[in-house]
Write a structure and sequence with these properties.
By secondary structure, the chain is of the alpha/beta class. Helix content is about 60%, strand content about 15%. The chain folds into two domains: about 220 residues, Alpha-lytic protease prodomain-like (Up-down Bundle), CATH 1.20.1510; about 170 residues, Cation efflux protein, cytoplasmic domain (Alpha-Beta Plaits), CATH 3.30.70. A three-stranded mixed beta sheet has the order 1-2-3, covered by helices on one side. A three-stranded mixed beta sheet has the order 4-5-6, with helices on one face. Helix 3 packs antiparallel against helix 4. The termini are far apart. The relative contact order is 0.09. This is Cation diffusion facilitator family transporter. Pfam families: Cation_efflux (PF01545), ZT_dimer (PF16916).
């Protein structure tokens, strides 16, 4: 059934643009989720009211929350598919994360409410009515939620939607909680042992924790997560294919939604190239990134003078100095400016995150050590802390000319 839905969607949406195709999958998922969650909510509310079980009522309200979540999912995919406009030049795809944020807040609210109800039920327990119908409905609910989990997970990975993948995890947790409620009902049916309040408390805690974790995840996405290793590795390997480049560094990736990825990178070229040669090269790179990776890339040129022996001697000294600090420091963007006062050496130092020494202290130490070998030069050092991926600078390679 799931494969049929995916194949049908593939055929129906294959001619659409990526944003519209994603919207189509999202709407299919949202409508199917809405229908199944409404059915589950009605079934659980009916048996919850009949049995008087607080744990079943908690699970029923969880299904009601899932129903609202499906509506928000529909809204999220619909708005996220809107074209960029004057007020939103990068598009609206982050609204998918906003809808997920509202879902997590709603889930957290329901969980906290049922924490209170379950504690009251533990303090003053009431008898529950468990019948064969109650057990059958709970078993059907487990099967439906398991199907939902598989469905959301398949679609989520198919279109790379964190919202649907998170919803799949929520559905699987619902399988576990409903199974716990079913076990609780069986225990009461067989041994007349009423643990309904305690199971309700466990369900409420699960709902609250799930809501909090989802809230944190979608908040991080809105703030701007660090790109995945897979995405960084894919871009790095793509840049390595351009053998005319001497090197590259300072890769930055900005996400405005799953299909709205922007990136910048510094690329090193031979300083003897003409401006037309350099422009043709970076234009090819940017066009290839757009076509092959769906990434809008902007390249910054760093011309490298490979034949200046004096410059290479200075840079070799810098590499030797920072290597002696044993801090895993790297250098790039090396230039020597000729000014009236003399030579000014400009370069960047890539600083790992877990370094206790301040940039100011590093600056003073490097400048002092460099002046011991080249007394007449001044330094202009920039410290990089937030760039992504490996530093592939030519002059960071120990095999560079010296």
């Amino acid at each position: 059934m799931i494969s049929f839905i995916i194949n049908w969607s593939d055929q129906r949406f294959k001619t659409r643009k990526p944003e519209a195709r994603r919207e189509g999958y999202g709407l299919v998922s949202g409508f199917i989720g809405l229908g199944t969650n409404v059915l589950l909510a009605v079934m659980k509310l009916m048996i919850g009211l009949f049995s008087g079980s607080v744990s079943i009522m908690a699970d029923a309200l969880n299904s009601v929350t899932d129903t609202f979540a499906s509506i928000l999912t529909l809204m999220g995919f619909k708005i996220a598919a809107k074209d960029p406009d004057e007020g939103h030049p990068y598009g609206h795809q982050r609204f998918e994360y906003i809808s997920g944020l509202f879902i997590s807040i709603l889930l957290l609210f329901v969980g906290i409410q049922f924490l209170q109800t379950s504690v009251k039920k533990i303090i003053t327990p009431h008898s529950v009515k468990i019948s064969l119908l109650v057990l059958i409905v709970l078993a059907i609910s487990i099967l439906m939620k398991l199907w939902q989990n598989l469905f959301y997970e398949r679609i989520g990975h198919h279109i790379n939607s964190q919202t649907l993948i998170a919803t799949a995890k929520d559905s699987f947790m619902d399988v576990l909680t409903t199974a716990a409620i079913l076990v609780s009902a069986l225990i009461y049916q067989i041994w007349q042992l009423n643990i309904d309040g305690w199971v309700g408390l466990a369900v409420a805690i699960y709902i609250s924790i799930s809501g909090f974790l989802m809230l944190r995840e979608f908040t991080n996405q809105l703030l701007g997560n660090r790109p995945s290793f897979k995405a960084v590795d894919r871009m790095t390997k793509a840049l390595e294919q351009y053998h005319a480049l001497l090197g590259f560094h300072d890769l930055l990736i900005h996400s405005y939604g799953p299909n709205a990825i922007f990136a910048t990178v510094d690329v090193e070229i031979d300083s003897r190239w003409t401006l037309d040669q350099a422009h043709e090269m970076i234009n090819d790179i940017e066009q290839d990134f757009k076509k092959q990776l769906a990434v809008t890339l902007v390249c910054h040129l760093d011309p490298i003078d490979l034949d200046n022996r004096h410059y290479n001697e200075i840079h070799s000294a810098i590499k030797r100095i920072i290597k002696a600090y044993d801090m895993n420091l790297h250098t790039h963007d090396f230039h020597v400016e000729q000014e009236e006062s003399g030579e000014v050496v400009q370069f960047d130092i890539v600083v790992p995150q877990k370094i206790d020494v301040s940039d100011h202290d590093l600056n003073q130490q490097i400048t002092r050590d460099l002046k011991e070998e080249f007394p007449d030069i001044a330094t202009d050092i920039n410290f990089d802390h937030n760039y992504i991926g490996e530093d592939k600078s030519t002059f960071d390679d120990d095999s560079a000319a010296s």
